[in-house]
Amino acid sequence: MPVQIKIAVSTVIEKDGKFLMVEEPTNDGIRIKQPSGRLIFGETPQDGAIREVLDVSKQRVILTGFISAYQLMRESNGAAFIQLCFCGKVGSVVPEVVKDKNDIHCVWLTHDEIIFRKREHRNPMVEQCILDYKAHVLPISAVKAFFI
């Protein structure tokens, strides 16, 4: 059976020199990543990125740009992903939102702290997204969605 490629969205959010990161338990222990998750059928990538940040952090995000698209293929389990990474800034906290998962925790880390915790990265895209964010950002309009 052919491998299904899943589409994911993530958002790099920097505030006062720190990045919003998600700590989540996995079978391999605690892993860190940017707020991210699968794109839901019928939503634009931008809407998916906004939803994922809200789901894990209870914070609204204002997207400010598009960083890049990444492909990840795990030979160990046959998983294949395309991840679209945006950047943004935090807006208001929405206390009435119920967090998507109770077993995750959001933390603000400096780039040095993220590098120090490299063994805990969910995947190689965690650091690459930050490096690419620091190097270049495209306008949000670089990602287009068509519903027909």
What are the SSEs and their pairings?
Layout: E1 5-15, E2 18-26, E3 29-33, E4 36-38, H1 45-57, E5 59-74, E6 79-93, E7 105-109, H2 111-116, H3 125-135
Parallel strand pairs: 1-6
Antiparallel strand pairs: 1-2, 1-4, 2-3, 2-7, 5-6
Descriptors:
single chain; alpha+beta; Nucleoside Triphosphate Pyrophosphohydrolase; seven-stranded mixed beta sheet; 3 helices; globular
Written description of the protein model:
This protein is of the alpha+beta class. The chain has a single domain, classed as Nucleoside Triphosphate Pyrophosphohydrolase (Alpha-Beta Complex), CATH 3.90.79.10. Helix content is 20%, strand content 43%. Strands 1, 2, 3, 4, 5, 6 and 7 form a 7-stranded mixed β-sheet that branches. The longest helix has 13 residues, at 45-57.
Which structural class is indicated by helix and strand composition? alpha+beta
First-last Cα distance: 28 Å
What string gives the helices and strands in order?
Answer: EEEEHEEEHH
In total, the number of domains comes to 1
The DSSP helix count reads 3
Q: Please provide the count of β strands.
A: 7
Low-confidence stretches: none
Sheet with most strands: 7 strands, mixed
Q: What proportion of the residues form beta strands (DSSP E)? A: 35-45%
- Work out the helicity level: 10-25%
CATH architecture heading: Alpha-Beta Complex
Provide the gyration radius in Å: 15 Å
Mean pLDDT over all positions: 91
CATH fold label = Nucleoside Triphosphate Pyrophosphohydrolase
